[in-house]
Amino acid sequence: MINSDKTIFEKFSDWATRFTGSSYAFIGAVLVVVVWAASGPVFDYSETWQLVINTGTTIITFLMVFLIQKAQNKDSKAIQIKLNELLAANEKASNRIVDIEDLTEKELDQLHCYYEKLADFAEEDNDIHTSHSIDAALRNQNYKHEFFKKKHEEWLQKQQEKKESL
Question: Coiled-coil ranges per the record (predicted)?
Answer without folding.
Answer: 76-103
